[in-house]
Specification:
four-stranded mixed beta sheet; rod-shaped; 2 domains; about 180 residues
């Protein structure tokens, strides 16, 4: 498999000698349900990342004429669409799991913040001035640090998963064209 010069910014071009190059050879499922080869997936996804997000994607597969006439070739568009659609569903489940974990850690973090805030108030009143102030500041900082991870989840961690999911959805909807060539 090799890449072709990309003349259209929304096109991803592949040149293969056999359709089997695109798919994982040890996968026991029928052709249209097979997993994409890891290198092929990385190549396609890598090129797709470089395309403008406001334009539909097109995957052009250059292959020998004999390969283009096989049953596998006619199922290639459906196989690629299914594969990338499945990967987008996996990314959606990963996002849901991230938010589920984020909610749990946020509840724990808020409980720790409440406890440390109350404990800080007691520390100020129960200990002498320099130690009480130190204990108050330490407990307040501890309470906020306990919320660092949940806040990071809800502010930043979800974005790469959403971007990947959206890219995989674009790939699932991509038009797949076969371009036969003479060997």
């Amino acid at each position: 498999m090799s890449g072709q010069p990309n003349t259209d910014s929304s096109s991803i071009e592949l040149r293969i000698t056999e359709i089997s190059q695109l798919f994982h050879t040890l996968d026991p499922f029928p052709f249209r349900d097979k997993d994409l080869d890891k290198d092929a997936e990385e190549f396609i996804v890598g090129w797709a990342r470089e395309t403008p997000t406001d334009r539909p994607l097109r995957i052009v597969v250059h292959l020998p004429e004999a390969q283009a006439r096989t049953a596998s070739a006619t199922m290639l568009p459906e196989a690629l669409s299914r594969y990338f659609g499945y990967r987008a569903q996996v990314a959606s489940r990963d996002l849901a799991e991230l938010f589920r974990i984020g909610r749990r850690t946020l509840l724990i973090g808020l409980a720790v913040l409440c406890f440390s805030t109350i404990a800080a108030q007691f520390a100020v009143h129960l200990t002498p001035d320099p130690l009480g102030s130190l204990a108050q500041e330490s407990l307040t900082i501890f309470g906020w640090v306990a919320n660092w991870r949940p806040l990071e989840t809800f502010l930043y961690d979800w974005l790469p998963i959403v971007r990947r999911r959206d890219l995989l959805r674009r790939l699932a909807a991509a038009r797949v064209d076969l371009q036969p060539y003479n060997t």
